[in-house]
Amino acid sequence: MQASKKSKKRQAATGPAGSPNKSSRWPFFLLIMVGLAVLVFFMLREKPANQNSTPLGSSVPGGDLGSAVQVLKGRWLRPDGGYVLEIRNVSADGKIEAGYFNPRPINVAKAEMSQEGPVTRVFIELRDKGYDGSTYTLVYDPGSDQFKGIYYQATLQQRFDVFFVRMK
Q1: Domain-wise residue ranges, the chain
Q2: N or C: which end of the chain has fewer CB within 10 A?
Q3: In the CATH hierarchy, which fold is given to the domain comprising 54-166?
Q4: Would you call 27 helix, strand, or coil by DSSP?
């Protein structure tokens, strides 16, 4: 009689033929579900910077894209060397018509802007003798009315912190 009570208890805990009872699997299932929920939460929470980029012609929350484009136009001086960046026009697709001078004209191969929320970014690529592949990656700072960013000098393969002030 005692043996049959023990075997019934064992069968209740493990189920028929020694397989685990479903009630003993729930902690493992719960752990898996919590792990998946945490993973989904972090995947939805973190977006790469390029997903926040707003194409020109779209509305910008908290900012006026038209005024962001207009404020870029003009001549900008890099005080540490007398370099001049001239932004003549910005098209609806973000392409910039620009000139770069040191003091002679340097070919601007690519110039474009993007808007990421309230942040206005400008990218300039130079292609000329001594400048082949050199780039500016700049952010417009409305508080100081300056461009601030990085100049990559391709020939030297060096990066420099730079800024441009508006020429009046």
Answers
A1: 2-46, 54-166
A2: N
A3: Lipocalin (2.40.128)
A4: helix
